[in-house]
Automatic annotation (TrEMBL):
It holds the Pfam family GntR. Keywords: Aminotransferase, DNA-binding, Pyridoxal phosphate, Transcription, Transcription regulation, Transferase. In the C-terminal section; belongs to the class-I pyridoxal-phosphate-dependent aminotransferase family. It comes from Pseudonocardia kunmingensis. This is GntR family transcriptional regulator/MocR family aminotransferase. Transmembrane segments: none annotated. CDD domains: AAT_like (cd00609), WHTH_GntR (cd07377). PROSITE patterns: HTH_GNTR. GO terms for molecular function: DNA binding; DNA-binding transcription factor activity; pyridoxal phosphate binding; transaminase activity. Residues 14-82 form the HTH gntR-type domain.
Amino acid sequence: MDLPPLPLDRDAGRPLAAQLADGLRAATTGGALRAGDRLPSTRALAAALGVSRTVTAAAYDQLLAEGWAEGRRGSGTFVVGAPAASRTPVPAATAAVPEGDAGLVDLSAGSPCVGALDRAAWRRAWRAAADPAPDVMPDPVGLPEFRAVVVEHLLRHRGLPAHPADVLATGGSTAAIGEVARTLPPGARVAVEEPGYQRAVTALRDAGLEVVAVPVDGAGLVVEAVPAGTAAVYCTPAHQYPLGARLSATRRVALVERARAEGFLVLEDDYDGELRYDVAPLPLLAALGPDVVAHLGTASKLLTPTLGAGWLVAPPAVRAAVLAVRGRTGGRPARAGQRVFAAFGAHGDLARHLRRLRRELSGRRSAVVAAVHAAGRAVEGDAAGAHVLVPLPGAATERAVVAAAAASGVALDGLGRHYAAPPARAGIVLGYAGPGSDELEWALPLVTEALRR
């Protein structure tokens, strides 16, 4: 087919692949390309534009990931049309701010990298999830096929041997924290990391529990600071949120030994433990102390919170208590997200996605670290997950950096809000998974300037 003009400016600072993807998007939204049109092969388009095939292949990959185009085996690449949730990135040469929530590119932590999803595999999973007949009765445990995929995932990527009977489906990590919290005696004391995940703090308090803050340092949770008489300890040992440290081997052993000696439960939130870029993912606390550790996992960071799917691997008594709560309240995790996750993992798509996600986020992390260093600032945290910590000298500097970035069109997350008590440190918790690659590229120079405050 004849393509509309696709001008490429080799003198611009914007990559040629990004320019080409912009041009094809614009041709689609403008009507020059319509749904069902077959695009030229990457080789033919490269020859026509006088660029390398790497450029055209990267542009097509971006359009496929965003849902503007789809690949059909043996037939080529076809225009799908403008996805309802997509938007055309604003070229970096203009002074306009890319569109987004409240007009800002959001670099806070906690969002998944949905751009890394293989959209063809994603659609296959949803179609497969729609095949079974509608459910007649609620299921408090979780679909067998979902739990089987979780077991395979935990063994291959987290080194945790488990049986499907050990697994309960959940609505995600925060939902699972709330469910386990309701199995504890009213007013029981639960130790949490400080700074830490404030949604977990809220879930515990909403269950009528007393929350006690325990400090965190470069080796993770300070285990000796956990007070006596604690009923449970909530922690993020693989990648402490938000400081980014990992719980040291010595402290892991100490925490499990204390849990056994004092009879408390350890809630291990493994929200992004699969995502490491320096070494293999770290062993789970649940593998070290399966009798005292409840392992929490989620699909939200691996794939998307759209699924509302997570899992709990816990001692039998904990599982029984959670099921009893569900029986009394009628609560149970939705099966739809479980079906999609199970279908996505059944034929290797989940493992392929995880490899692709690690490559993508590793590259993004390198770009973020370079931008922070260009401002003369340091980065804390392991080479893992989807955020880094940028320490700052005080709360006033933190506020100034956040305000300067917002004025430039970028939303940053201050460390202060991650404390339940008055903050002991200041900094920026800088996420890099949520925005599109073009948005991140656009935003990082602005982050560098804001950090120079």
